[in-house]
């Protein structure tokens, strides 16, 4: 995020989410200069001397993304000719409280407590309100009183762009969200840099990214893992301090009388050293893969994904119809608000896998990237997410932590071999035909480093009539996956040579995620839904055993 703020030509058309804002205004300068800028404020705002101080401080502590004063590590340094100038459609979130020992956050809270300011000095009140929401570390969704939302909806003083929200000259403005929309966004999401395992570089790389609030650890949700986010981050930071390499823990060498040396198994030896080095495949490559699969399998192979694309593309529009807004409304993305359960599921899996900081992870069927953001926040993994729904990926690229590519998930050949520490996937594999399920899983095993692990969750979910469920090949999990890996040994060259092999297991999710299934009503955990676990190995490691 370092570097000068991007410039838009004065004649440029500014558009976002399908809303054309017309000819772009010249760059907007944040309120600055203290007393010199006080004349821009309504007289009633100056009754409280904290108001100009707070608004001026916001220009330093809530700068736009790309402001050249913010270093990669997130420190606020010096000034620049562009400092305080806003281009584009969004301002940036506030810096973390260490920048000023929480003075700015305290000022925001003190102004919000003066609720009469909502009518008398709307620009100061709502600016402070939005800042206060950002500084909340609550994992629960923030409960905003209905009266406050009605008041925000009725506020007109702070609007100066037709069709957009502008707290001019304060930096909290948006060309895509109303004041109420901004409030709702911050009640559901916390800025990623406010609370993250990698606290030494938290503001730079993750500023502008947001994490869905979800209190999986509260006792009323009966999650099998109840460690709080705070505890998980402490544990992760302790691992970071003791770790001298990124990624999974190493193997050991040496005999009984020799020194035992720990080292990580080799990653892909090419130019790809990190998920950020992986290039998303171009459309031509994707079309070539689709044609090859159609030639090999025949029929309407490409069209098999149309139902899932239509289903989740519709959900991506949310209640507002704005592309990607469904990612901000868990009740739209998952048909009902299941964020608590999704986060609980992920925490159980990550505690089981014990991924270490710096692990390179693939999230297959990532959706909006919420799970990858949680994993990055609490376990410091570096993630690549892939999904077929364009609006979801576009949202993830803007707001979630990680790198994201839009493509048909059945196309995995472009991913580097022997690279990932783990592959995570939930409620995605079930959308594929049985043959495609087997093909994807078998090929992804070869994308792991030796010792790397795969988790595919929510297989054979109980969401259809019994007769339909029983007829699914994957319902008989032992028979289905045994047959799958037998075919892999016969059909895939790296499996044939013994370079790639896997140890695998399945487990009913009703026994994994809730600590007391009798207290749960969510359909996510209903039997026979199960998780599939695999560990990458090779034939030499399995030579003494009959695996298939």
Summarize the structure.
The protein is of the alpha/beta class and 548 residues long.
What descriptors fit this protein?
548 residues; alpha/beta; seven-stranded mixed beta sheet; two-stranded antiparallel sheet; 18 helices; disordered N terminus
- Percentage beta strand: 5-15%
Integer-rounded radius of gyration: 25 Å
* Termini separation: 50 Å
Helix content: 25-40%
What structural class do you assign from the helix and strand content?
Answer: alpha/beta
Question: Whole-number average pLDDT?
Answer: 82
Number of strands: 17
Number of helices: 18
Outline the low-pLDDT stretches.
1-26, 31-36, 80-84, 158-166
Main beta-sheet strand count, sense and barrel state: 7 strands, mixed
The spatial strand order of the largest sheet comes to: 13-12-11-14-15-17-16
Shape category:
elongated
Describe the structure in your own words.
By secondary structure, this protein is α/β, with parallel strands linked by helices. 32% of the residues lie in helices and 14% in strands. It has 18 helices and 17 strands. The protein has helices spanning 50-61, 103-112, 117-120, 122-134, 146-154, 179-188, 203-206, 229-242, 283-297, 306-316, 330-333, 339-353, 370-379, 390-399, 434-445, 466-471, 477-491, 493-496; strands spanning 13-16, 19-23, 28-29, 85-86, 165-166, 173-174, 189-191, 210-212, 251-253, 261-263, 360-364, 382-387, 403-406, 420-426, 448-459, 501-508, 530-537. The protein has a seven-stranded mixed beta sheet with strand order 13-12-11-14-15-17-16, sandwiched between helices. Strands 1-2 form a two-stranded antiparallel sheet. The model is unreliable at 1-26, 31-36, 80-84 and 158-166 (pLDDT under 50).
């Amino acid at each position: 995020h370092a570097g000068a703020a991007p410039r838009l030509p004065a004649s440029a058309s500014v558009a976002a989410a399908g809303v054309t804002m017309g000819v772009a205004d010249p760059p907007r300068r944040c309120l600055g200069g203290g007393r010199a800028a006080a004349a821009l404020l309504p007289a009633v705002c100056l009754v409280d001397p904290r108001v100009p101080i707070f608004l001026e401080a916001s220009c330093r502590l809530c700068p736009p993304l790309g402001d050249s004063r913010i270093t990669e590590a997130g420190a606020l340094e010096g000034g620049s000719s562009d400092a305080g100038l806003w281009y584009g459609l969004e301002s940036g979130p506030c810096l973390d409280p260490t920048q000023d020992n929480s003075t700015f956050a305290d000022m925001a809270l003190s102004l919000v407590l003066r609720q009469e300011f909502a009518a008398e000095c709307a620009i100061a009140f709502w600016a402070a309100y939005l800042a206060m929401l950002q500084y909340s570390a609550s994992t629960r969704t923030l409960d905003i009183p209905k009266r406050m939302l009605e008041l925000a909806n009725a506020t007109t003083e702070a609007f100066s762009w037709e069709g957009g929200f502008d707290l001019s000259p304060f930096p909290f403005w948006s060309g895509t969200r109303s004041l109420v929309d901004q409030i709702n966004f911050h009640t559901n999401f916390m800025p990623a840099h406010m609370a993250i395992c990698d606290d030494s570089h938290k503001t730079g790389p993750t500023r502008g990214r947001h994490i869905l609030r979800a209190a999986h650890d509260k006792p009323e949700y009966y999650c099998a893992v109840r460690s709080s986010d705070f505890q998980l981050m402490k544990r992760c930071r302790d691992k970071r301090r003791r770790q001298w390499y990124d990624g999974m823990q190493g193997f050991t060498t040496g005999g009984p009388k020799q020194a035992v040396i720990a080292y990580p198994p080799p990653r892909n030896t090419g130019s790809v050293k990190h998920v950020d080095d992986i290039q998303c495949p171009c459309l031509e490559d994707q079309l070539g893969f689709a044609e090859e699969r159609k030639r090999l399998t025949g029929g309407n192979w490409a069209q098999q994904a149309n139902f899932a694309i239509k289903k989740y593309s519709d959900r991506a529009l949310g209640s507002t119809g704005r592309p990607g807004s469904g990612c901000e409304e868990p009740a739209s993305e998952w048909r009902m608000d299941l964020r608590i359960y999704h986060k609980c599921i992920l925490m159980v899996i990550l505690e089981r896998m014990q991924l270490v900081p710096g692990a390179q992870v693939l999230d297959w069927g990532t959706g909006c990237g919420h799970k990858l953001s949680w994993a990055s926040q609490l376990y410091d993994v570096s993630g690549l997410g892939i999904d077929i729904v364009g609006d979801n990926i576009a949202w993830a690229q803007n707001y979630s932590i990680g790198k994201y590519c839009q493509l048909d998930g059945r196309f995995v050949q472009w991913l580097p071999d022997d690279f990932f520490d783990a592959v995570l996937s939930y409620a995605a594999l079930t959308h594929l035909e049985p043959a495609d399920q087997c093909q994807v899983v078998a090929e992804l095993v070869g994308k792991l480093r030796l010792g790397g692990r795969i988790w595919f969750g929510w297989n054979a979910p109980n969401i259809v009539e019994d007769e339909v469920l029983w007829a699914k090949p994957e319902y008989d999990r032992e028979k289905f996956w045994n047959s799958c890996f037998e075919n892999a040994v016969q059909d895939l060259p790296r499996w044939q040579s013994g370079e790639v092999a896997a140890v695998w297991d399945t487990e009913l999710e009703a026994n994994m995620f809730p600590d007391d299934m009798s207290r749960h009503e969510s359909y996510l955990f209903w039997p026979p839904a199960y998780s599939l676990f695999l560990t990458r190995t090779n034939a030499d490691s399995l030579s003494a055993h009959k695996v298939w």
